[in-house]
Amino acid sequence: MIDEMRSVVTERLENATKIFWSPGSAVLRRDADLSQNLREEYIQAYFRYVHPVYPFLDQASFLEEVSKPQFGQLLRNHPEWSALYNTVLALGCQYHGRGAFFPGKGLAWHFFMKARECFPKTLGPMPTLLHVQTVTAMAIFSQNMSSFQFKEDLLSEAARLARCLQLHKSDRVDESRIFWVIYQLEKSWCFQNSRTSLIADFDIDCLPPTTTDPIRSSHDWFLSSTRLARLLSVCYEELFSVKATMYTVDQKQTKIQSVYKALHAWKESIPAQYRPDNIVGIPDGQGPQSRAVLIHLNFSYHSVVIALARLAIHCGIEGDLSDFGTGEVMLRNAARAILELTSLIDLKAYTSLWALATMPLAAMLILFDLVIQDPTGPDAKTNLLFLDMASGYFSRLEHVTEAAMQTSRLSEFTYIAREYHRNEILRLQTDRSGSSAFPGQQTVSLLLGEPSTNRPSLMDSNTNGSLLPGPDRAEIHSPQGLQVHVAGERTAVEGSVPAAALGGPVSHLSVGAGQFSFEDLFNTVILPFENQQPW
Length: 535
Hints:
- This protein folds into 2 domains: 13-203, no CATH class; 221-408.
- It is an all-alpha fold.
- The chain contains 18 helices and no strands.
- The chain is 54% helix and 0% strand.
- The chain is globular and about 90 Å long.
- One of its GO terms (biological process) is DNA-templated transcription.
């Protein structure tokens, strides 16, 4: 299953790359079908839904330029303006249902391709602020499912241009605004993908701007996003960089606790109704931009918690991490919180792939691993319920996206975990009933093909543990070759189940409780029924 999913993703990336760079093959000429009114609606949708989250454009100056009579000539003479204009249309039309989950489809992809045609021309020897705005807009669009494979190149180019223009030391509002948008995007992406940032935190000398509130509250959400991006940068440098590999376990534990405290302080700065672990829904009257901000901040918070918890477990750090519990507890709670938030995710083409699939999948695999590692633990049943929740979400995602990503197959993880949990519970009950003369022993007798009245009881044994001889002792019958263990008996019936009766050698299946390996789920070979010998 893992190999099939990997091949599907690889094929998807290769096909999208071919479509993106093929000259005009996927560009649908629909300019004649778009009226000026539609274009204005798409631009308004951009500034209503995208601009509050990523405020890197000056709305007044952009609308003024677009409304000029000579704007068409400006597009023909300045490719960077054409690329920016078409990317704004691509972002805005997605909120009118014109986006798609497949590369090469939808009006949004058409506008993105038109921007791509102008992209090489925008990379001149003397970049301007307009060049940075164009690449940043394209990077924002590339977060969705249809074009996520281009995000790394576009974000890296945006960060490079910002550094070339010294935007991190500018005192102009328009320049500092776009720098902090790039900072948030680039720092988040680097932390998620274990990459070194191109932006040096110690060399920044500009203030974050005051922006429009996307959730209609008094809180500055852009500043909160910037602070979280800064925390992600510190976390990567202190704990996941090459430098961090030289720390001792005690030093790592101290740094993990320090980052946890900083993360908790950031969490407390969020309004109570929107804090991670406390959010219950989106207030009435809020649009997609509110969902995007809250989902991004909550998922980013939980991604840091997961990273720190996994590092603590990897380093063998035992005990509570400050006041937040053990690494396993933090891992479990973060995974559950992510799956609880899936009901708030907009299953639309404009939603980022990271929020749409990456974080829910990470949470699902974490809970799957916890169930496999401790199938009879007190949290196993609750974790299975959350796995059922994840299965339902991924099935719904495949339906909404028209199988753009075959995520319904992920429900097999839930099935495997539930079956393993059930088998371990039965095995545990069988082991307990084997040492008792109570009715639980009857279940074992039925499995062995004999009535429970023929089983020796504890009263039939002497003080040395051996069975008392005499006519009252019933003979134990078992299937041929089956090894039977009786409570209180030190010896067992000689023989074992023939290997051929189980379809082949089974030495590689002898896994005890707590020793289960994730790879064993996919390395086990089960022969077809026609190749198995009957009992």
